[in-house]
Design a protein that fits this description.
mainly alpha, globular
């Protein structure tokens, strides 16, 4: 086990990752506002499972192999980039829904779709894998015991922090939904702002390189 005094810096880094605007945060805010807290929590479950996927990959050394093979990394990065651009288009396409629209008559996504999209949004984000590969080795030491156990320990800490931050995001997004929906000026601004952020994230991901 990693001594507790060795964890604060890792926790700070994990906290920064959690509060940094990205696909996960955008997706959770969108679903929480348009479909309510329940949908937001289901989406959050998918996102957290995505984190667990990355943690398992790192713990077994599979992610290191993935990022070491240019083709494999490029494939994952390309899939993530295309997905983000698709979300950007959905935000500004004609007759697209405003993410702050709280009309209760709209058709809600099924729990399965909410979970799946949340999961894929995280799994297709190489930034998460790069974060784990960049920070885990700095805190894992053979003298602390099993490397596999230490990796899981760090993963659990990161997941708990991420879940806590995103849980608050879901609650906050649901509470401010009516405020945004009652301000028409936000409709166009929100759509293009969201599309711009998603496009920026897609471009940033497209030009990112394996560490």
């Amino acid at each position: 086990m990693i001594p507790f005094q060795e964890l604060p810096f890792f926790m700070i880094a994990a906290l920064i990752l959690a509060i940094s605007p990205g696909p996960n945060m955008i997706y959770l805010i969108s679903k929480s506002i348009t479909q309510g807290k329940k949908s937001g929590f289901i989406s959050l479950t998918g996102v957290i499972c995505g984190f667990i996927f990355h943690i398992i990959m790192v713990s077994f050394g599979l992610t290191a192999v993935l990022l070491a093979v240019p083709f494999a990394y490029t494939l994952l990065k390309t899939a993530g980039t295309v997905y983000l651009l698709y979300l950007a288009y959905q935000a500004v396409r004609p007759n697209s829904k405003n993410i702050f629209d709280v009309d209760q008559n709209i058709s809600h996504d099924s729990p399965k779709k909410l979970f799946t999209v949340g999961f894929l949004t995280n799994v297709l984000n190489p930034k998460v894998a790069v974060f784990y590969l960049s920070f885990f080795p700095q805190f894992i030491k053979p003298e602390y015991g099993s490397v596999f156990t230490q990796s899981l320990e760090l993963g659990i800490v990161q997941v708990v922090l991420s879940f806590s931050i995103n849980f608050i995001i879901v609650l906050t997004a649901a509470r401010v939904a009516l405020f945004f929906s009652n301000n028409p000026v936000w409709i166009k601004v929100q759509k293009w702002f969201m599309a711009s952020v998603l496009t920026y994230l897609a471009i940033k991901m497209a030009f990112s390189k394996a560490k």
